[in-house]
Specification:
Layout lengths: L1 H11 L23 H5 L4 H9 L7 E3 L2 E12 L5 E6 L5 H15 L12 E11 L4
Antiparallel strand pairs: 1-2, 2-3, 2-4
C-alpha cells in the first residue's frame, strides 16, 4: 500500500524541471548544422538596415562598401525541437533583436532539430545581413 501511495504522489508532483540557464560561453554550445535560418536571414537585410538608418544600432561592420551584421543566436529547444527561448547574443540593438526573434518564431519555429534526450537543451547558430546605403 505504501508503494502505491508513493507512486501516486510522484505522479501528482509537478515534474517541470527548471529550464537550463543561458550558457556563458557560446563556443561550448553545439551548432545547429544546416539550419534554415542561416540561408533565409539575408532576405531580411533591408528590414534590418532600416533599424540601422535610424542611428540606434552599432554592431554592423563595413564590408566591401556595404554593411555586414552577423548575429550569434542561442536557442533553448524543447526535446521535440520547439524553441523555448531565443537569445540574440551580440546584436547590440534591441529593435533588431526583437525583429529577428519574431521572424525566427513566426517563420522558422519548426526548423530546429529534435533532441535525443528528454531535457531542453541550448543550441546555437547565426543570422547574417548585408546591405548597402549607396544611392
Amino acid at each position: 500500500m505504501t508503494m502505491l501511495v508513493s507512486l501516486l504522489l510522484a505522479a501528482a508532483a509537478p515534474s517541470a524541471a527548471p529550464l537550463p540557464s543561458m550558457p556563458d560561453d557560446i563556443s561550448a554550445v553545439p551548432v545547429i548544422h544546416g539550419w534554415q535560418g542561416r540561408r533565409v536571414s539575408p532576405r531580411w537585410s533591408e528590414d534590418v538596415a532600416r533599424f540601422y538608418r535610424k542611428g540606434n544600432c552599432s554592431s554592423a561592420v563595413s564590408y566591401e562598401g556595404s554593411w555586414l551584421l552577423e548575429i550569434d543566436m542561442l536557442f533553448l529547444l524543447s526535446p521535440d525541437g520547439k524553441p523555448l527561448k531565443i537569445a540574440p547574443v551580440n546584436a547590440r540593438c534591441p529593435e533588431v533583436e526583437r525583429f529577428v526573434s519574431t521572424r525566427v518564431l513566426s517563420l522558422l519555429g519548426n526548423s530546429f532539430p529534435q533532441g535525443r534526450g528528454m531535457e531542453p537543451r541550448w543550441m546555437r547558430s547565426q543570422v547574417r545581413f548585408l546591405w548597402s546605403d549607396a544611392p
